[in-house]
Amino acid sequence: MIEECLVVEVRVSGDDCPLAAATATTGTPIRAEPPQLRADGNVLLRFGAPRSDALAETLDADERIRYLHRSRAGDRDTYRCLSKHPCVVHELVSAGLLVEDITYRDGDATVTGAVVGHEVLRGVMERAGETVGVRLTRTYPLREETEPVTGQFGLTPPQTEALRAAVDAGYFAVPRAATSEEVAAELGLSKSAFLERLRRAEATLYEGLFGE
Questions:
Q1: Is the per-residue pLDDT at 13 higher than 50?
Q2: What fold, for 149-210?
Q3: pTM for this predicted structure
Q4: What is the distance between the alpha carbons of residues 191 and 187, in angstroms, rounded to a whole number?
Q5: Domain coordinates of the chain in residue numbers?
Q6: pLDDT per residue over 46-90, tens digit each?
Q7: Which residues lie closer than 8 Å to 199 by C-beta, 6 or more apart?
Q8: Which of 89, 111, 183, 190 is most open to solvent, judged by the fewest CB atoms within 10 Å of its CB?
Q9: Phi and psi dihedrals of 101, rounded to 5?
């Protein structure tokens, strides 16, 4: 039995899948669940994004997207659709990557998942080398007590998204690489709404770390 499981993060660039193309065109980031590949080669997609009519129109105009459905809740949209264009992620899954989360931003994708052992990781990266640009950006062992930050500390999905966007943009870097206005714009939020989510997320994290 293989006891080692690794959490990995890979950055995909140059993939022409519909979601990547839509973020490059509109500048609206997309958070997607792992795609479901059907036996006929089509892909079932479920993903969310800040409310954006431009994104909805771009996706609806893409001939590779069928049966696009959008539902709205607050300042976010949730989409479900069928894609006739399998993306690079399916190649990584075929090689052994257990995908947990995909974030599309400006035409690139950050894929987070897990692999069982270094041998499988080597296979994933070898398969990646045969496709478009895929780069391993982070890897660490998965411990038995490890669980997602959202579940461990009770962060809501919007709070998690705000934290992730802030980290990705360099908002917490020293010196700061992005302003609150810039991060808010990427999320499609006002500055005040973004800062409120960030403060609530930070409060939840601190209470989880230092509270009883």
A1: yes
A2: Arc Repressor Mutant, subunit A (1.10.10)
A3: 0.68
A4: 10
A5: 6-141, 149-210
A6: 999 988 999 999 999 999 999 999 998 777 899 999 999 878 888
A7: none
A8: 190
A9: -155, 140
Which single residue is written with the structure tokens 């899948």?
A: 17
Q: For residue 112, give every residue at least 6 positions away whose Cβ sits within 8 Å of its Cβ, in sequence order, or none.
A: 7, 8, 9, 99, 100, 101, 102
Tokens for 30, please give them: 């997309």
